[in-house]
Amino acid sequence: MQVNTSIEFEKIAHEFLLLVKRCIRHYYRPNVNEGYQKYDKRELQLMGEFFKIKSEANAALHNTVNTKIAAEKLCQIIDLGEKYINEMKEENKIPNCLLLRNIAAYMISLLKVFGVTPKDVDDICSVDFNETTICGTSPSTYAYELIMPYVSALTVFRETVSELAQQHNVHDIIKECDRIRDEVLPELGILLDEANPEKPVLALKKWSTSAEAITDEFK
């Protein structure tokens, strides 16, 4: 994964955390057995690779405070996580949410070292996961249920307009639809799945970041 700017770095990290949040909300159930999956061969492999990269990132920060190497290691961790999630999706398996949570927790700690702090995003890594409980409705769950129909309607409308624009070769409208998908919605915590645009990934918390916090070492 090549990262050339601090903005691109923030975007990649943000989207991966949204993917982890999606897995947690869709699959993690502390009340049932699936919430406590054992570590199979694939999970053990992922954990070993994660610990190795984590150790290298820590060494880069502890010895010479080499933020460039640490950022590269963070991107490698994101690659590992995305590959694992995609594999589980292709094999129709439930990803190990606790392992993904641990990866996300370490990512957040590194982002804070860089000064790029995702505001109020630590709830992704909460042990309690009250939002995913089967029985009962938390205030946050209610907020999701309240806003999701509007978000779904917006994303379906965007997809419909984009398809019509492509049929009639209206390039300006196509570009605007792409901009909404790639720039506007992610800033609001909404990530569209190209394979299923009718089911967007929604995170109500918006990031508050400092782009200047990551230096020109990415160039």
Automatic annotation (TrEMBL):
Write out the GO MF terms: ATP binding; cysteine-tRNA ligase activity
For this protein, the record's InterPro entries field holds:
Cys-tRNA/MSH_ligase (IPR024909), tRNAsynth_Ia_anticodon-bd (IPR009080)
Q: Name one GO cellular component term.
A: cytoplasm
Q: Which GO terms describe its biological process?
A: cysteinyl-tRNA aminoacylation
SUPFAM superfamilies, sorted: Anticodon-binding domain of a subclass of class I aminoacyl-tRNA synthetases
Q: What is this protein called?
A: Cysteine--tRNA ligase, cytoplasmic
User: Which species does this protein come from?
Assistant: Elaeophora elaphi
What phylogenetic lineage does the species belong to? Answer: Eukaryota, Metazoa, Ecdysozoa, Nematoda, Chromadorea
